[in-house]
Amino acid sequence: MTDDLSTTPSRIYLIRHATPDWSRKDIPYNLPPGPPLIEQGEMEAVQLGGFIKQARLSKLYYSPLERAKRTAEIIAGLANIPTEEAAEIAEMRPSENDQEYLVNMLPLWNRAIKESRQGNPIGLVTHGGPIRIMLETLGLTTGLIEAYNERFDGHNPLPPAGVWMAEKCAGETRWNLELVFVPMPVCVPSPDPDLPESG
What we know:
Helix content: 25-40%
């Protein structure tokens, strides 16, 4: 992957959406709106928002699926940063291969690089598959990706609400890649069976 500003520092955060309601089998996972966040996911996104605020991002791009959109909304509210929907980082379609997805995503990636170099880092709120593709493209070895895949749900290289940082410093040709945020486990209390239901 090449660009025309290779001597200028750039930092992009690859952010996976928080935990959605995977039990909703009536909603296709790969088409908008897709399943929404559950309470656990909302709480993970709050943790994520605190991390992103400290990282001083200047903008978030987010996938149009509800789980990514809502994650971005929570982050943006806490970190006070603008957001923009980007179809280029939507969930992969079942019929789509990695190369096809990458070709569609690269224009947004290059735009994010340029915007990052003009100010603070940029965040992309997307899905596990697209993040894996970008990590491979940026040079993370297959062995390392597989090792991370084995640690997290759905054979993804990061958990829900997790973040990889991709950084290229001035004068360097290789990207530095690091898993920089994993949310703390969230404990959602179970409903008390002795309490009457509201509504």
